[in-house]
Every structure is written in structure tokens, then in C-alpha cells.
Design brief:
There is one protein chain. The protein has about 1000 residues and is α+β, with helices and mostly antiparallel strands. The protein has 8 domains: about 80 residues, Ubiquitin-like (UB roll); about 80 residues, Roll (Ubiquitin-like (UB roll)), CATH 3.10.20.310; about 80 residues, membrane protein fhac (Ubiquitin-like (UB roll)), CATH 3.10.20; about 70 residues, Roll (Ubiquitin-like (UB roll)), CATH 3.10.20; about 80 residues, membrane protein fhac (Ubiquitin-like (UB roll), Roll), CATH 3.10.20; about 80 residues, membrane protein fhac (Ubiquitin-like (UB roll)); about 70 residues, Ubiquitin-like (UB roll); about 400 residues, membrane protein fhac: a member of the omp85/tpsb transporter family (Porin), CATH 2.40.160.50. Helix content is about 20%, strand content about 40%. The strands form 9 sheets. A 16-stranded antiparallel β-sheet has the order 23-24-25-26-27-28-29-30-31-32-33-34-35-36-37-40, with no helix packed on it.
Length: about 1000
């Protein structure tokens, strides 16, 4: 208190307080106010209590200044707190046109003085504005102007700060000013920096990243000249406002050339660059050279030179050259042929071996993997395994035996384990639990009576207990553990001391930044409500769910006034909505034998090798009508498929977690079957539900019109198959995915069941039931060897077949199963498996035809794929041995596992293919090349003429050579190129 205020209070010492006022108002929750200041109406006034009240109010963090006044009132004294409340940052926004870079997030980050929920200081506005201005200038906007504005909300003393930027035009680089003897020409410097376009010599626009990369590029230029001690310093950027040009000022010290070489042993420059870190750090010092010495020793030991000796020396510079020599005495080359583990009783040998890094010699590692560092690492790994299970005195020592079994150069390593005694927890005592469920706490602890006593278990318990309290509003909870002796040998009494601290509650949840989004979209995820325990875990879970909506570029959350001594806190969520329109373009290609139909030539029913470029375009409107819904337009174009679709996605349908509803319309024209082009015009509605992390269900009703065009078989010969058909189908798909990596799995399983029914009750012109089952499993045989297998079974069963149509022909061509290709049966080109056209017999009034041999699809499917995946070349190239078996069958009753074809009209048998493939790892998935040998490809009767000639071979036609059918077959060799694993 100020002196005058204290004197004023002292004159009313001991008088009864009749009223307590705040001017202009106080922002505290009533419970926090009562806790912060001890003055009570009706009690005597004491100066010490007033001083304590001021201290308590300041400690809440919600007041910048407090002055206490007192005045007489009837029956006693009136006490008035004249306060200046603290304001807090409620949100920071950036407006105005800003050409990236920088993006809005970088601009907002530049205003680092303002953190959400922290106290607002007026003087920080100028600092933040200057920081943003500096960021814009670093990116070439020297004419930019930044204007800050603030908006205050009295509800929670929030200040919303908006920085409006007017960027102007971006400056360009100009000739840099160089200090020092660069030893490079100006053209070389400019080419290395990339600040000027080559050939046309146009100057690029200034960006912070381009400036930084220019300096790095110049350093890289010196590095290529072995000048590892080169120094390039960007002193400043001089801006010429008249011409809008920037002149970088560079101070360059190229330093001497540094040559690193190995003596007494041949070492490639690539290996030296990899293991001597002066190349990565672009500097030379003693520590890096010593690290290079260790790295080279480990490298040679991993190559079998276990007795290698490595040292280095730095020769005095001569003629602008400094030489560093690594003296390497390799010694005899060894092979690690055997690893033995002794003394282990608690863990079996296999459990220990799978944790070790040392590896005996094998086909892939000719000399095994061993070094002193690897041995020490394995010793510590095994010891840690035992210590985590209560063996506190375990000792692991490794012995190396040379010339194992008398063979020169072979060595064996024996790891001797002295387990010692296992310690147990005899009794667990937990002290200090008052406002928590003690039984629930105990049920999740690792250190309970009868369990091994280990530090790792105590650490696990500490994390669990503190997370438990932290998630229930106890941010200051503490945990301490100690042990006490017990009468039992190798047993301890474990005591956990817990101090819960004060509990915090949610005073209210404050939402800001919504412009297009309707508040109800956000509110339904706000599981934190006023009066709830303040759980930062729940707070961040809400943030994650809001991010998952995909309509926000930024969701910031914070606790207002986190350091203030109050138990009731405001929780803040500040949003920045994502761009509502997104566009993407994709390009790809496939190389294989495709089944593109040809209406002019029937000579190649098995397809022809081709190249299919693929293009895709997607345009999306996010947050449609502010509801969080998405409208998407997608188009795909290639030589084998043309597709356009429009979809409307309603996420979290009816508030369900992981439940989405999608409406879609689709037009698709696919030419991947040699026989015909399939057209599909469809409207559908689909409900997807994620039941668990691995289990998803899809429920769909589709109404579509399917037809065929470009059919190579004359339509007069198969009229029932070419008519447009209306299909109404209800289907469900259950997917279980437990793969470790969906793009490139090494273990786990994938199961799916797709069941659907089409019928007249849905307005369908064809009635059938459809089932497609898939099971794939992945086994890691060794660390690098994976066995993958997949089995698929499908059946289409027609019912209520229209009169005059067979059960098989009742299924329209586009609805049938087709198989063959890179992702199903590699015994066939794309969609070439299964039944084929074997001709039409003459009927009354109708023509007959020769067989064309073109695929017609089937009503049943069975395939089985097996792949053995292994490292092939380096770390990024994988090899695959595979075997495919199965076929597309005419009906489920005709599924057969025989391996031979009975005649040229028989296609209901199991075709097989074996082959070899290569996978090259990329960020988007492995690029795949497969070469398959079809063991028993089908032969069939074909026609080597044109469709018109085929029509001329009808009933009564003369037996000319042009009407004679010829035997054809699928090639034994198939080649595929695509992206992604087969399954």
C-alpha cells in the first residue's frame, strides 16, 4: 500500500467493515475472490489484513494495479479496492494480401510477444509490428506496411490483436558486394547462390529461404573444392528503393583446401565423407576428427577387421592445401560365425537374441556384424532387460574367441550372464491420496506386491500417477518414491508419496476466430464445460478432434492466466479457418499388357503391351455452408479409364465419432477389358463407421445404369449382354486392418468382407447377391525377410432370372468379376482371366458365329497370392519372389483347383504364375516392377479377322478361309509396372 493509503486505513483500524467494493469491477470467480483476500463484511478492519488482501489479489495475476480506499459509513467503514485489471491475449490474426513466402503462420509467429492466454502489454505492439516488418523485408517486401489494431472483450479481459499487412511489390536481387579474396569469379558466385537465372540472367525475387539457400549454395561450392574451412557471412542486405533491388553484402574467407585421405588402407572418398563428420558439419576441429576416428574404426570392425587401429594426423598447410591423414591398420579380417549366450535362466535365448545388434555371418552379411561398440551395446541391452525385471545386480560380459574351431579368421562371441537375485515388491504403500480413487490408481500400477522391483516400473508408475492427476485438474501434483527394508530376502517395501495440490476447474470455454464456421459445429466437440475439472489432456483431445475436421488451418488452445493463483480458469480456443477451396493435380502411368478394346481387329484377344499415362484433378469446397461438410469434384483420365465424380461429405453424421455420410454421383467409362468398354452412371449414398482403430464398416446403397460400348463381339451375336441395365444394390463392407504399415506392411493382417444384394425390390432390372471376401497376412520371418499371402473368394449368385436369359448371362458384363494383372493374378494380362467368348450356335432365325476368344468375366472368383519379400540392393531396393494361383470362374459350382485345361472351351481351372519382382522405396510408396511366368496359361479358339468378317461367317455362309477360327493362347511371360505393393 502507498503511504497515504496506509495512513487512511489506519484511522479506521478495528472498525467494522460494512461493505467491500471494487471499482470499476473485479474479474475473479467468487470462490477465487474469497480465497485471495481475507476481508469479510461484518468483521473488524486491520491494516495487516488489507496488505494480505492486496498481496493475494496480485498473486491471482488478474490485476495490474490495486489501490485501497476507505471511508466512513453508517455502523463502520466502507472498503473500496480501486483496481486496474490485467488484459490477456485472446487471439492473434493476420489480414491483408500476403504473397507467400511468408505464409500467415510465419507472420503470426513473428509476433512472438503475444502468446494465447498470456498477459497483454501495450508496448509489445510496437515490438511485434517491427518483427513482422522485418520478416516481410527478409522476404523482399521492403515497401510493406503493417498496422496493428486491437479489440477488447470485457467478459474475460481478452484482447484480440489484428495485424493488417499491405505488402507492396517484392524486390529482386542484384549484384552482391563481396569482401575478401573469394577465389571465385562473379559468374561462379552468382551461379552458386542461385540469385540470378542462368542463360537469360534475370534476377530472382527476394525470399528469406532463397537468401539462406544462396549462402548455403556458395558454401557447397567451396565444399566441392575441398575448402571445408570456408566461411561465408551475409553481413546485410542493402535495399535500393528507386530500382527495388537488393544488394547482398557477403564476407568470404575461402580458407585452404582440405584433403582427407586414408593411408595404409584403401578407403573410398564416399566412405570417408560418410564417416568423417567434418564433411557434414563443413568445418574442421579436433572433436570432429576424433569422432571420425571412432566411426572409421566401427566401420572396419563391421566389415570384419576387428583388430583395426585408426589414428589421424593433421599436416601443416602447404600451397593452399591442408592434409588430414587417417592412418588405418586393418589387421586380419575375421568372420563372426557363432554367438553363444550362457547363464540365462529367466529369459530364453531367443528372447535375448532378438534384442541384440550383433549378427553372425550369413548370405546377406558375409562377415557378420561385430565391433567393440556393438558388443558393449548388446551387453547393456541385455543388462537393461534383466534390470527391468528385477535383477538389480545382473552382470553381462562378452568374451571373444578367435580362430574358432581352429579356422583362421573365424571368431565366436560368448555372452556370459550372471543374473544375480531377482528383487520383488513385498508391499506397496501409497500416501497422500485424498481426492482420487485409490483402487483405480492401484489397478494400473506396475509395481505391486509380488511383481519384480525395477526402476523402470517405478518410472512407469510415476508417469501414470501424474498423468492421472494432471488429467483431473491437479497440475501441481507431485510424486516421490522410496523403499524400506522388509524381513524377506530380496524384497522391499515400496512407498509412494503423493501430494495432490490444489484442484483447478473450468470457469468457461472461450471460442474466437470463427468467421464462416457455425458455432454449433465446434460446440458439439467441446466436452469441457464450465465447472468441470480442468484437464489439459481433454483440452488437447478436443483440439485434435477439431483439427481432424479438416476445415481449420490452425486450432490454438491455451489456459488464460496460467500462472495466476486461481482455481477457476478460462480455457481458450482460437481458430483460423482453412482455405475453403483446394485444388490438386496428379500424374502417373502404367506399363503392361492392357485389354483396351478394338472394334476393328479381333486378332489379339489377350491384349497388347501398352503405356497408359494417367491424370487426375480434384477440386474441393471445404466447410460448405459453415457446417464442416465438403463438396468434391474429381476427374480421372487415362487411356483405359475416364471418370468424373461429385461427392458431398457430411463427417461425424448425427454426432457419431468416426461416422461419415457421403452422397455421390459418378460417371465412369472404363476400357480395361479387351472385350468392351464399361459405362456406369451412378448415384449412391454411403455411411461409414469406424468401430475401432482397426475395424471399419461401410454401408452403401447405389442406383446405377450400366452399359457397354466399343464391344468387339458383334452385338447381333450377344444381344442379351449389350443392353443397358438398371441396377439397384444395397451393400455392406467390413474392413479389419491390423497392418503395421498399409503402404508397405511387414506384419499384421488385412480382412475385408463385401456383401451386397440387388433386386426388383430396389428397382433393379437384375436380381443377384454378391459376396467378395479377402484375407491377407504378413509374417516377419527374420528382421528383413517378410512372407506375405493373400486369398480372395467371390461369388455372384443370380435369382429371379428374366425369361429367355441364362443364369450366367443374367449378370451384366460390367457387374461380373474380372481378374488378372499387377494386383490380382499375374498369370494374365489385365482383366484377361476367366471365361471367354466361345462363339454362338445357330438358332432359329438367328446367326451363328465363330469364337472370338475375348474375355467375358465370370460369376465366381478365387485367387491366392504368396510373396517372399527380401532386401535386394542397398536399403531402398527390395526383391520379391511370388506365386499366384486361381482364376475367375463361370459359377461357384465350377470352381476347380485342377491345374490343366481340359479343352479349348474350358476356363474353369486354376492358373498359376511364378516370378520375380523389384520394389524401389519412395515417399509415396514402392515403385513396382514384376516379371511373371505363367505356368499353365489358357489356350482358346480365336478369330483373326474383323467384326464385319465375323458377321459374314453366320449360318449358311460359305466355308471360306476367312471364316476359319485359329487357336490362340495367353503368353507365358507377363510384365507389370506400377506403384505400391501387390497387396
Amino acid at each position: 500500500m502507498a503511504g497515504s493509503a496506509a495512513a487512511q486505513i489506519s484511522q479506521f483500524e478495528g472498525q467494522t467493515i460494512t461493505e467491500i467494493q471494487f471499482s470499476p469491477n473485479q474479474p475473479l470467480d467468487p470462490v477465487d475472490l474469497a480465497k485471495a483476500q481475507p476481508l469479510k463484511k461484518g468483521e473488524p478492519l486491520h491494516a495487516n489484513d488489507v496488505a494480505n488482501a492486496i498481496d493475494g489479489l496480485f498473486a491471482t495475476g488478474r490485476f495490474e494495479d490495486i489501490l485501497v480506499e476507505s471511508e466512513p459509513s453508517p455502523g463502520g467503514v466502507l472498503v473500496r479496492f480501486v483496481v486496474k485489471n490485467t488484459w490477456f491475449v485472446g487471439g492473434v490474426a493476420v489480414e491483408g494480401k500476403i504473397g507467400e513466402p511468408p505464409n500467415r503462420g510465419q507472420v503470426r509467429t513473428a509476433a512472438q510477444q503475444f502468446s494465447l492466454g498470456m498477459p497483454f502489454q501495450e508496448e509489445d505492439l510496437a515490438k511485434a509490428t517491427a518483427s513482422i516488418q522485418h520478416l516481410l523485408e527478409q522476404n523482399g517486401f521492403y515497401e510493406a506496411r503493417v498496422v496493428p489494431t486491437t479489440q477488447r472483450n470485457d467478459r474475460a479481459q481478452q484482447v484480440f490483436i489484428t495485424f493488417t499487412a499491405r505488402e507492396g511489390k517484392r524486390a529482386k536481387y542484384d549484384m552482391p558486394v563481396v569482401e575478401g579474396d573469394s577465389k571465385l569469379s562473379n559468374d561462379t558466385i552468382l551461379h552458386a547462390t542461385g540469385w540470378r537465372l542462368p542463360v537469360i540472367h534475370w534476377w530472382r525475387q527476394v525470399t528469406e529461404a532463397r537468401t539462406r539457400n544462396g549462402v548455403r549454395g556458395l558454401l557447397s561450392k567451396y565444399e566441392k573444392q575441398d575448402r571445408l574451412k570456408a566461411r561465408v557471412e551475409l553481413k546485410k542486405l542493402d535495399y535500393d528503393a528507386q530500382h527495388r533491388r537488393v544488394h547482398p553484402n557477403l564476407r568470404i574467407d575461402p580458407g585452404p583446401r582440405v584433403k582427407v585421405k586414408a593411408v595404409e588402407a584403401k578407403v573410398s572418398k564416399r566412405v570417408l565423407k560418410r564417416y568423417v563428420p567434418i564433411f557434414q558439419e563443413r568445418t574442421v576441429d579436433e572433436d570432429l576428427l576424433v569422432e571420425g576416428k571412432r566411426n572409421l574404426r566401427d566401420y572396419f570392425q563391421s566389415q570384419g577387421y576387428y583388430d583395426v587401429d585408426v589414428d589421424f594426423r593433421v599436416l601443416p598447410p602447404q600451397n593452399d592445401l591442408e592434409t588430414i591423414e587417417y592412418v588405418i591398420s586393418r589387421g586380419q579380417r575375421y568372420k563372426l560365425v557363432h554367438i553363444a549366450i550362457t547363464g540365462n535362466k529367466y529369459f530364453d535365448t531367443a528372447s535375448i537374441r532378438e534384442r541384440m545388434y550383433m549378427t553372425p555371418a550369413s548370405f546377406r552379411m558375409r562377415h557378420g556384424r561385430y565391433s567393440e561398440a556393438f558388443l558393449r551395446k548388446d551387453e547393456e541391452t541385455i543388462a537393461s532387460l534383466y534390470r527391468s525385471n528385477g535383477f538389480r545386480d545382473v552382470k553381462v560380459t562378452g568374451d571373444v574367441e578367435q580362430d574358432y574351431h581352429g579356422k583362421m579368421g573365424d571368431i565366436a562371441v560368448t555372452l556370459k550372464i550372471d543374473e544375480g537375485d531377482q528383487w520383488y515388491v513385498d508391499k506397496l504403500e501409497i500416501h497422500g491420496v485424498v481426492r482420487a480413487d485409490l483402487n483405480l490408481l492401484k489397478s494400473e500400477l506396475a509395481s505391486v506386491p509380488g511383481e519384480p522391483f525395477a526402476d523402470v516400473n517405478i518410472a512407469s508408475d510415476r508417469n501414470y500417477v501424474l498423468t492421472y492427476y494432471y488429467g483431473r485438474g491437479f497440475p501441481s501434483a507431485t510424486f516421490a518414491a522410496r523403499t524400506e527394508q522388509t524381513g524377506k530376502p530380496h524384497c522391499v517395501t515400496l512407498v509412494y508419496e503423493i501430494k495432490e495440490g490444489d484442484r483447478q476447474y473450468v470457469r468457461d470455454v472461450l471460442i474466437s476466430g470463427l468467421r464462416t464456421t457455425r458455432p454449433k459445429v465446434v460446440n458439439k466437440y467441446m466436452t469441457l464445460k464450465a465447472g468441470d475439472a480442468l484437464s489439459p489432456i481433454q483440452q488437447t483431445d478436443i483440439q485434435k478432434k477439431l483439427y481432424d475436421l479438416g476445415i481449420f488451418a490452425r486450432v490454438d488452445t491455451a489456459i488464460e492466466n496460467p500462472e495466476g493463483r486461481t482455481d477457476h480458469k478460462y480455457v481458450i480456443y482460437d481458430f483460423e479457418e482453412a482455405n475453403r477451396y483446394t485444388f490438386s493435380v496428379g500424374v502417373g502411368a502404367q506399363v503392361a499388357r492392357f485389354g483396351t478394346p478394338s472394334t476393328t481387329n479381333l486378332a489379339s484377344p489377350g491384349g497388347t503391351t501398352g503405356f497408359s499415362p494417367q491424370f487426375s484433378f480434384t477440386a474441393s469446397r471445404l466447410n460448405f455452408l459453415g457446417l464442416g461438410h465438403t463438396v468434391s469434384l474429381r476427374g480421372d483420365y487415362s487411356s483405359i479409364e475416364k471418370r468424373a465424380s461429385l461427392s458431398y461429405l457430411e463427417p461425424h453424421f448425427l454426432g457419431g465419432e468416426g461416422r461419415d455420410l457421403t452422397y455421390s454421383v459418378l460417371f465412369d467409362n472404363t476400357l480395361d477389358v479387351r472385350t468392351f468398354a464399361a459405362k456406369r452412371e451412378e448415384a449412391a449414398i454411403q455411411l461409414s463407421q469406424k468401430f475401432s482403430r482397426s475395424l471399419t464398416g461401410l454401408f452403401r446403397f447405389a442406383y446405377r445404369r450400366v452399359s457397354v460400348s466399343d464391344i468387339v463381339i458383334p452385338t447381333l451375336l450377344i444381344p442379351q449382354l449389350v443392353q443397358p441395365v438398371r441396377i439397384g444394390i444395397l451393400s455392406g463392407n467390413l474392413i479389419q486392418d491390423r497392418r503395421d504399415n498399409p503402404v508397405d506392411p511387414h506384419k499384421g493382417m488385412y480382412n475385408s468382407a463385401d456383401v451386397g444384394v440387388a433386386g426388383g425390390f430396389f428397382g433393379s432390372q437384375r436380381s443377384f447377391a454378391r459376396v467378395l471376401l479377402r484375407n491377407a497376412t504378413y509374417y516377419r520371418l527374420t528382421q528383413d525377410l517378410v512372407l506375405a499371402r493373400q486369398t480372395q473368394f467371390g461369388v455372384i449368385q443370380p435369382f429371379s432370372t428374366p425369361a429367355g436369359i441364362t443364369a450366367q448371362d443374367a449378370i451384366p458384363l460390367p457387374e461380373r468379376f474380372f481378374g488378372g494383372g499387377a494386383d490380382s493374378l499375374r498369370a494374365f494380362p489385365y482383366n484377361q482371366a476367366g471365361p471367354r467368348d466361345i462363339g454362338v450356335s445357330a438358332t432359329a432365325g438367328g446367326p451363328s458365329s465363330a469364337a472370338t476368344g475375348f474375355p467375358l468375366g465370370g460369376n465366381a472368383l478365387f485367387t491366392n497370392n504368396i510373396e517372399l519379400r527380401f532386401p535386394f540392393i542397398g536399403e531402398n531396393i527390395q526383391g520379391v519372389l511370388f506365386h499366384d494361383l486361381g482364376n475367375v470362374y463361370s459359377s461357384v459350382g465350377n470352381i476347380s483347383f485342377r491345374f490343366h485345361q481340359r479343352n479349348l472351351q474350358d476356363f474353369d481351372y486354376a492358373a498359376q504364375a511364378a516370378g520375380f519382382g523389384v520394389r524401389y522405396k519412395t515417399p509415396v510408396g514402392p515403385i513396382r516392377v514384376d516379371l511373371a511366368y505363367s505356368i499353365n496359361p489358357p489356350s482358346f479358339v480365336g478369330f483373326k479377322g474383323t467384326p464385319l468378317e465375323l458377321l459374314g461367317c453366320g449360318s449358311g455362309a460359305p466355308a471360306t478361309g476367312a471364316c476359319q477360327s485359329v487357336q490362340q493362347s495367353i503368353s507365358h511371360f507377363q510384365f507389370f509396372f506400377s506403384i505400391g505393393q501387390t497387396f
